[in-house]
Amino acid sequence: MLKSLFAGTVLAFSLMTAQAADPAAETPKPVNPVLKLATTTSTDNSGLLKEILPVFEKESGYQVQVIAVGTGKALKMGEDGDVDVVLVHARAAEDQFVEDGHGDKRYGVMYNDFVLLGPEDDKAGVKGTETAADALKKIAEAKAIFVSRGDDSGTDKMEKSLWKDAGITPEGEWYREAGQGMGKVIQMAGELGGYTLSDRGTWLAYTDKSPLTLVLEGDEKLFNPYGIIAVSQKKYPDINHDGAQALIDWMVSPEGQKIIGDFKINGKQLFIPDADADEEEQAEDLPEAA
């Protein structure tokens, strides 16, 4: 009897030792490993997600399915319970999403800024302006081609607010609404010799592929923060809330923030990590106008 108990104790100890020595055993596999993330085309087009998500997946055991759309569509997918978590960049819309009970809490993740792009010859004379509103006034006066996202994305929302600041309702042959992602819009504006508004991350990823040049930057209005929000488990009990929170916790962790900050293209940093940072102060630190 004693021998039997001793043998059982040895076996149990051996199993515990083997599990402790096995790194995979230290992180239990998620009950639901598939995690649906709705995010912007800028995080996808820039290459950021391809850089950071494999690290999270390897460490956590989750498999992230990325749906890259405009911010408006991403938030609508969260509102409808079609995804588990959203990573977007339209602060007012994000706050409203949480206030309306569609999401639990917004976490700041990173920021960059928007930039105005145009043809090398800058036919509208935008380079002499200091604010985005003044730049858009010159484009409208010259009736120079402007290619808009036109897709209710965070970039589209920003652009529409800038036209409002300029006191202009853009319309006519010169104003083209593409209904496309940022990479495609940069390509279209380049082919047409026109102007467009882009997030800096996507622009840096496309600089070598486009004839466009940066014609305006530095306006505080162009500050572009990104936030991540888990879809409400109270509203949708069956969503993968554990996976959503695991991704959020990882992205705002020192490790996640470092990987985001280290991501560069041609030596240039695309996103500034900013978990728990003061966004008003960050907006004052944008690059000086070109």
In short:
This protein has 290 residues and is α/β, with parallel strands linked by helices. The chain has helices at residues 2-21, 23-26, 41-45, 48-60, 71-79, 91-99, 132-142, 154-166, 182-192, 200-206, 241-251, 254-262, 279-283; strands at residues 34-40, 63-69, 85-88, 103-118, 146-148, 175-177, 196-199, 213-216, 223-231, 264-265, 268-269, 272-273. The radius of gyration is 23 Å and the shape is globular.
Explained architecture:
The protein is of the alpha/beta class and 290 residues long. The protein folds into 2 domains: 32-111 and 225-283, Periplasmic binding protein-like II (D-Maltodextrin-Binding Protein, domain 2, 3-Layer(aba) Sandwich); 113-222, D-Maltodextrin-Binding Protein, domain 2 (3-Layer(aba) Sandwich). Helix content is 44%, strand content 22%. The protein contains 13 helices and 12 strands. It has helices at 2-21, 23-26, 41-45, 48-60, 71-79, 91-99, 132-142, 154-166, 182-192, 200-206, 241-251, 254-262, 279-283; strands at residues 34-40, 63-69, 85-88, 103-118, 146-148, 175-177, 196-199, 213-216, 223-231, 264-265, 268-269, 272-273. The strands form 3 sheets. Strands 1, 2, 3, 4, 7, 8, 9 and 12 form an 8-stranded mixed sheet that branches. β5, α8 (154-166) and β6 form a beta-alpha-beta unit. The longest helix has 20 residues, at 2-21. Mean pLDDT is 88; it is low at 1-25.
